[in-house]
Amino acid sequence: MTKTFFQNEIPKSIIITLLGVVAILCGLFTNSENRFFIGAILILVAFVLYFVSVYLIAERNWLDVRAVFTGVWLATLGLAALRLNDYQEQWERKTWILLAVAYLVYQIGATIGVMNGDRLFATLKNISGKVQLKRISFEMNENRLFPICITITLIGMACFGANVAIKGYVPAFSSSTTAYVDFYTKFHLFAVASTAVSGLCYYCIKTQPISLIKKIILWACIFYLIVLFPTLVVSRGVFIVAALSLSTTIFYLNKRKLTVFILCLIAMAGIYLFTSNLRGYSDEYLDTYFEPSDVEVENLDGEGGFQFSLPPKLSFLYGYFTVSHDNFNEAIQNLEGYTWGARQFYPFNVILRIQSISDVRANGEWHQVRPHLNTVNMIGVFYYDFHELGVVICTLLWALIFGLMQSFHMKAKGPFSLFVLGFAMNPVALCFFASWVDLFELWMFWGVVLIIAIVACLKVNSKQLCSE
């Protein structure tokens, strides 16, 4: 039977996307008088379109890459439109237009990816069936998963211990507000990389026929990797990346998805706020750095009203959600040159060590509202590299990749496709804060997943070796 117009996914996606674009373009008309109204519209539309996307096009997948991006992108733009901190200013018209264009092309790319991931799965499966190697083959060995989890966790703990020995302190117990920044060494990189195995620990608990003792050990590993280690190093970034990956794994491996989704959000918010408090920022420090405004709100009749300013800790949280968008506007206002892809290539340069690439990143333009507020949203680096063309092409390409990752996992249902998707949720869910695709950490986690997959699946044909 032929589907009607509103039963087809494509028309519904088009309508949702156009509504989101229109909501963002409302920002073109924002000013000091109506910014609360425009901001409220964006936030309301964000929630409505998120739930509509989940129910109408995502088959109640609360972590669908299109729905999550819609909710986060529009909601944080709405918050930024309120302009509750002094460093914020009215954005350029070009800024709002590019933010809307980015949303449009992201939805196009992600939808194409989601709709074609099954073809990618079939193609790769066909290719893998034809490729035959004499000495080696790849087949999941479930018995290897538990020792892999334990080994990587122990390596991470050893690297953390080495880091403490080198630096002579644990950031959580230091009175310095920069202790977590000064703590970095090469050992810290391996300690952070070990958190990638948290999802595999949960996968073993949920799917493998292992003893109660082993399950307890795996839960202890998860607690160390997700809670204890990020808390001790006072790194919200490490926690968020690892927690999003683990939450994605938990979400897809459980049937009561909405309940699991809400519980994961509550747990992540609680631990995030706790680790933020451990940084020891005083109210005076937060007031100085985030500059909460004295906001006057008039009654609808123009008479009376009230005045308020955000408490320091709320101003800090508000800045976390909005400052990257403000920095994008700074780039729109001031950027002159191009970096020609050097910023997005930088993660590979951590290994390749091409000096010219490092020089471009170190000496290139970087515009921000304040020297200490230095992040930029997902499309910011695309703009630094190729300006408007970069925003369109790079956003489209990465959205396509994220959509393919999601659809591929929905078809494959394998642990490693799940872990790859889990780390992809960072640039999707945290699109308001950083580009992620230009950070080494994201590629490092994907690399760790690849290594784990090889170790878990590699099989050497000893009989073939003997016969030769």
Write the layout of secondary structure elements.
Layout lengths: L8 H17 L9 H22 L8 H18 L10 H38 L5 E3 L6 H23 L11 H4 L3 H8 L4 H10 L4 H21 L3 H17 L4 H21 L5 H8 L4 E3 L8 E3 L3 H23 L7 H11 L2 H9 L16 H33 L2 H15 L10 H18 E3 L1 H6 L1
Antiparallel strand pairs: 1-4, 2-3
What this model shows, in words?
- The protein is mainly α and 468 residues long.
- It has 19 helices and four strands.
- A two-stranded antiparallel ribbon has the order 1-4.
- Helix 3 packs antiparallel against helix 4, helix 3 packs across helix 13 and helix 16 (380-412) runs antiparallel to helix 17 (415-429).
- It starts with 8 loop residues before the first helix and ends with a helix.
What's the helix count?
A: 19
* N-to-C span: 58 Å
Categorize the overall geometry: globular
Low-confidence spans: 1-6, 464-468
Rounded mean pLDDT score: 87
The proportion of strand residues reads under 5%
Strand order of the largest sheet: 1-4
Task: Offer a quick outline of the entry.
With 468 residues, the chain is mostly helical. The protein contains 19 helices and 4 strands.
Key words describing this protein structure:
single chain; about 475 residues; mainly alpha; two-stranded antiparallel ribbon; two-stranded antiparallel sheet; 19 helices; 4 strands; about 70% helix; disordered N terminus
